[in-house]
Amino acid sequence: MESTLGSHNRPSGMPPPVIAPINEGMWRAAGAGRLDLQRCRECGAHRYPPTDGCYRCSSLNWEWSTVPGTGTIYTYIWVPDAARSGEQDRPVLYNVAFVELDGTEGDPVRMATNVLDAWDPDDLYVGQAVVLACVPLGDGLGLPCFRRVP
Amino acid sequence: MTADFPVDAACIVGIGHSAYGTRGQLADLGAARLALDAIHEASRDAGLDVKDIDGFSGWCDDETLPADLAVSLGSTHFRYSGLVWGGRGSGLPGAVTNAYMAVATGMADYVVVVRSLIQAKRLGQSWGAGVGRGEAIPLASSYTVPFGLALPAGLYAPKARRHMALYGTTIEHFAEVSINARRNAVNNPDARFRTEITVAEHHNSRLIADPVRLLDCCMESDGAAAVIITSPERARHLRQAPIPIMGVSMAHEYKWGNAGWGTLEETFASTGHRRAAEELYRRTGTGPGDIDVALFYDAFTPGVIMSLEDWGFCPVGEGGPFVAEGYIRREGKLPVNTHGGNLAEVYLQGITHLLEAVRQLRGISSNQIAGAETALYGSGIGAAPGGGILLHRQ
Fold first, then answer.
1. Is the preceding peptide bond at B385 cis, omega within 30 degrees of 0?
2. By the CB < 8 Å criterion, does B221 face chain A?
């Protein structure tokens, strides 16, 4: 899955996330193919990355909330992946995209992620539609990544 | 001018720096020795006995400790120290604010703002704030590093791309920021990169995090620099003509956080300093039209273009065309980073920009702007709180 010829374009050598009470629900949901975000129990605003308090109403009460898992690319970068590039003239690039998620309440929620089926700079553009495509982390956990919507 | 902010309540009376080196080159000396070299030079510049320094102000989790500096300086009345809480490399305006407040309230007489840096950890390769590659990541990096958002350039590049998509900014615009820095560094004997570069060299430089290339990035370096701040009354008895600090601000945007993806749409493709600009201009009764020289934190070139917009030198979205017109060159209407900045002189997280602001206002810069009477410092894209500093000539 992580090889140059694999089906997923993911950066090599990156550590897994730190699992903690404030984020475990989201990795677990991604392990089941869902996208769960923190949602304020008082005002209903979604937020990401996880925070203890609500940026909108300051409440400390929150719950996990499943969102549709569709969105659009807000911005993105391409980074050379030294480990996968080897001696090739053209480095293998991985992408990091900020995806603005559909179906959220409050200020638009964005997520830094990888678009798994984008390999070349021409494969991504601002405004492009993407859909959730989770990558397993083991132990029932997953990373919320995305694929392009044709 | 509003009555609630005491302008000109403190001034800069001395500037100094240690030797500068490439990353790790000065590691054997240690950060404290570099800091002391800088403080001694600043004191000589001011005509001040180092024993009289009684306050210390730092930022960015500086590894030196004021207690140690005070012992080595022989400070007889150590009575103030402050470190900006958060802000990382954006924290210089906070450090100057702390020194300003300490002096204005009589907490201390001579406060040194100092930054000493040995890049043993390779900031340019770090996974997160101060976290080296291969080290365990903190919880807060769990939403970036596993996805490969694991370089300082990764903080800037998404904003650069968004700026390009929204406003038509181009990599030619980024190149001009780098070309300007190199061009100014040619005349600065302290600068590391003293050869000019071309647009083609910029475009052909190694990709770091597209759209950011190597020649969009600052260097990694070792060194220390210091400024000494005191009251206008005490300044009269020192060697240099004092450079008053007209005002400071350390505001940031609502929901800015650590400059991630969660900022508001209207401030995403910015350095996060529009509110800081508004506060600084309001406190000092000035505006962008009053600024003669601008020193902007230039860790990466796109941030300079956004700074021009945030500090009101052009409308939002027009920073690219502004630099394309040559306006930031030393012959232009707003000379920017006349010392070469982080891109070409040395990378000490902003303080060398402040040294250059003082040199401009003393009339001794290696790229002196004729008649410069005001100089603005603005911090770059980074964690809150950043801010601004406005100096002027008396």
1. yes
2. no
ipTM of the complex, rounded to two decimals: 0.95
Neighbouring C-alpha atoms within 13 Å toward the C-beta of A122: 0
Q: Do A112 and B147 touch (CB under 8 A)?
A: yes
Check B262 against A110: CB less than 8 A apart: yes
Chain A interface includes B132 (CB < 8 A): no
**Would you say residue B123 has pLDDT above 80?**
no
What are the pLDDT digits (tens) for B305-335? Answer: 999 999 999 999 999 999 999 999 999 999 9
Domain residue ranges of chain A, discontinuous segments joined by +: 24-148
DSSP letter at B197 equals: -
User: Are A112 and B144 within 8 A, CB to CB?
Assistant: yes
Q: Which residue, among B356, B336, B359, B358, has the nearest Cα to B346 in the 3D structure?
A: B356
> Tens of pLDDT along B233-243?
999 999 999 99
What is the token pair recorded at B173? 């615009």
The domain over range B10-122+217-392 is classified in CATH as 3.40.47.10: yes
- Taking contacts as CB-CB distances below 8 angstroms, the residues of chain B near A81 are 148
Model pLDDT for residues A108-136, shown as the tens digit of each residue: 999 999 999 999 999 999 999 999 999 99
Domain ranges across chain B: 10-122+217-392
